[in-house]
Amino acid sequence: MAELRSAFKDDNPNITQCILKLLYIEMMGYPVSWAQMEVVKLVASAKDQSARRLGYLALSLLIDKDSDFLFMTTNSIKTDLESGSPYRCAVALHCLGSIGNEDILEKLAPYVIPILGTQATYLRKKAALISCNICEKLPDQAELFIPAAKNLTMQKSHSMVLSGTQLMTAILKADPTLWDNFLPELRNCIRVLKSLVTSHSGSSENMICGVRDPFIQVSILNLLLVFASCRRKLRLTDAVDLPGLFASLSAVLTGSPSTKAAGRAVLHTAARVVLYIGAGGVLRDTALDVLARFLTHKDNNLRYAALSTLAASLRDGTVQSNEISKHRATILHCLTDVDPTLRKRALDASLCLCDKTNIRFIVSSLLKYIKDVCNSLSNNDIEMRAAAISGIILACESHSPTPRWHLSTLINLLDICGGWENDKGVGGEYSSAKSSAKGSSRSVSATFLRSDIAASVLYLLSLHSSLQPYAVQLLLHRLPACLTTMNPSLAYLIGCVLGEYGHTLVLHGKERHGEDDTEGGHAMTSSSSSSDEPIDDILGELGLDDTTSPGTETHPQTSVPTHDDSHSHDPGSKTNIHPSLLFSSLHSLLTSAVCKNVRVHSVCVNALVKVSAQFPSVFDAQPVDESEDLSDEERKSREDIFTIGSETKRLLSMYAHHLESELQTRSVEMCTMLRSDKVNILCQTIPGKGDDDDEEEVEEESGGSTDEKKIEEGEKELQQGEKAEEHQTSAENDDLDDLLGLF
Amino acid sequence: MIEAVIVVNNHGLPRLLRFYEDYTTAEQQKVMGRVYEILTKRKDTSCNFLSGDVGLKNPNTRVIFRHYATLYFAFVIDESESPLAIMDLIHIYVEALDLAFQSVCELDLIFNADKANFILDEVLCGGLEAETDIKQVTSVYEAMNLHEKGKG
Predict the structure, then answer these.
(1) Which terminal residue of chain A has fewer beta carbons within 10 Å of its beta carbon, N or C?
(2) For strand B124-125 and strand B128-129, is the pairing parallel, antiparallel, or unpaired?
(3) Could you list the residue range(s) of the whole structural domain that residue B28 is in?
(4) Where is the composition biased (Basic and acidic residues) (chain A) (predicted)?
């Protein structure tokens, strides 16, 4: 580099060689800004054409676009533009083409316009393209180029027409209101398009693989697209008089050979135009046919083009999803393709395809995809996963057929993805924390929770109170799996829902039990299975079934400390959900390692406090005396209830010295209340027009946001029920045993 | 429009860089590095289109590339261009180079970088397709060369 500097200083006659070396060095990435002055000098003082050409090239490549050096050259560019010599003009235009600076373009625009009117076709073409740039950067100047554009498109020579259409496209993009200037030219373009495809006479110039002038065809089609989008932007829906438009489009669609790349490009663009302008009938079918052929082609490029066009059209609303429903399977199949770009496109297309009728099928395939395929750590997979998950959430929100389905899908999603630490996937952190597949043994300091999904579930439940017991039932069913796979987000959701809505399941069970003894069980099973039958089949495949046939399934290993026999698990057919179930679930959550996550921890403790406040009778149980005359089942049930009560008290008192002040406050209050004799009175809900009792104020804090009268009734029933249970027959005791032995 | 034309060899060394928007040298090198990175990861059977951010001002760009022997020819385009048509354009450019240099190879591009740029100027101007007929491109280029020799 030092040599170069000295060479420049010495005014070496071989200055062109030096400049060439400079260009090469710049391309390699070394800073050469010290040489900008030399370049300017070369351009200004160029004696011959080769020097000038090189100088302009160096100008476009080397000079910083914001620098003042560029302004110094404006004068030389201007002189060259005005000169009569086509060669000087041409190189000046080339240079202008590469410079994107708005000030320079604005200054030199008046010198470009006259060139558009000259006879030299070569110069006119270049000038037209520079004008496109000017229109883009300075949209208010677009009007100046209208006459030139009109002129160009009416020419015979095809390359003129090409530049003309490009200029028109640029003008329309810059200023959509100018569309009405171009109607006659548009008609001419359509005619040209048709003649290119249909006529076999004429020059064979520009034949590429048997397609005449594909670039002009694509350019005209693009122009039509931009024209249609202008009118759409301006919200004009009246018909425009463009005769022969449909005829020429259908000629293009049927006439272009689809075996070669050039023909395919034309076909693809034509299909896109047909769909965008909303043509109907045979033309539309032909276009959709073309896209369908591309979808199943073995060339990846075509599949990519078809998928992206379909996704764009679906998003625009120009294509309805029922029209391409028969290609749904192909699109979903592309999800598992080897090529990651294709996978991304397929995901996009399938999410756009969702509507009320097919969302169940699509979402279940996507869930399967996330679960089976996206479980490696490569960056691609992580991106795909994140996109798929957020896509599913959005699609469910807009198109879910029933709130019940929405809820169960969200919970399934949380089940699959809640255990992954960070879906945004920063490679290093991720791999150090994860030591085995599928989410076990996570780093316990992970604080990434899918609280977005949890928030959606809670919002849904607050809107539809009839879903609350169903949600609690679902989540209780998922709890053992959640504990084994250490899924913190699911644990967080379980804690929230059990705390807020756990009592609704008990009440629901009570109501049903009151209605009809024998039918109640089947009613619950059948009501939950009838509305979700299709999804249940698919969920069954995935192993995420949420309804079971009575009494045949056993659950996988759990870590619940209080019950160590695994009875058959059957949430659906049991109507009499005992609140002890809620307690034992929360105990198992609190004592498992998944609770080391701070937020999950505090949520579970709060939930335990809420549930204790709602069912304080569990603390009434006395320890069983040997002398009491009870049957074995009665003894066991009383022992179990007593164990639950004492375990809850123990767990709550553990937090009396916790660092977090809220946990500490709640635990101390609750323990104090539990120690007093008047627990039941304390935990009564406040009547409508509240009195200001101290004790009741304490209760208010932990009472939750539920219907007060229902709670009261529920509690009274519970107390009566418990007393009745102590003297019940052995048949009902079996029931109770089964319930308590659920885990 | 076409935002950038990037020609890199198999080892990541640039052979031709042309950006049709304002970028400093450092930014250009970054973009080139990013494009090279994603290009080398592709298998030969996967499609020639890549979408994704390569560090340009416009984030919705796609990279259309073709692999010829030791060189990758990559055109970075925005949404208004048809990817299949650009594949053809890349081929036209390469054929024009072939005609001008008589069986072009990588060395030709290294030692005649300015000529490669001039030919590119004939095919693309300001990021838009100027001339797509190979015969026209080469004839204009020859005429320019003759004119230079005549004058100089």
Answers:
(1) N
(2) antiparallel
(3) 2-148
(4) 562-572, 706-729
Q: pLDDT tens, A615-670?
A: 777 777 666 666 666 677 777 777 777 787 788 778 777 777 777 787 788 788 87
- Is A638 in contact with A620 (CB distance < 8 Å)? no
Mutate to test the interface with A, among B25, B31, B110, B118 (most CBs of A within 10 A): B25
User: What confidence tens digit (pLDDT) does each residue in A700-737 have?
Assistant: 444 443 444 445 555 555 555 555 555 444 455 555 55
Cα(B143)–Cα(B86) distance, integer angstroms? 27
State the residue for tokens 């002055």. A37
Residues of chain B above pLDDT 90, percent: 12
The distance from CA B141 to its chain's CA centroid, rounded to whole angstroms, is: 17
Q: What's the CATH code of the domain at B82?
A: 3.30.450.60
Contact B62, B50 (CB under 8 A): yes
Domain count, chain B: 1
Name the burial class of residue A609, with classes exposed (0-12), middle (13-18) and buried (19+) by CB atoms within 10 angstroms of its CB: buried
**Closest CA relative to residue B97, chosen from B15, B11, B4:** B15
Tokens of A472: 């609690």
Give the tens place of pLDDT for each residue, A122-180.
888 888 888 888 888 888 888 888 888 888 888 877 778 888 888 888 888 888 888 77
Helix, strand, or coil here: B55? coil
Pick the more confident residue, B80 or A708.
B80
DSSP-derived 3-state class of residue A357:
coil
Q: Which residues of A touch B132 (CB under 8 A)?
A: 159, 162, 206, 208, 213, 215
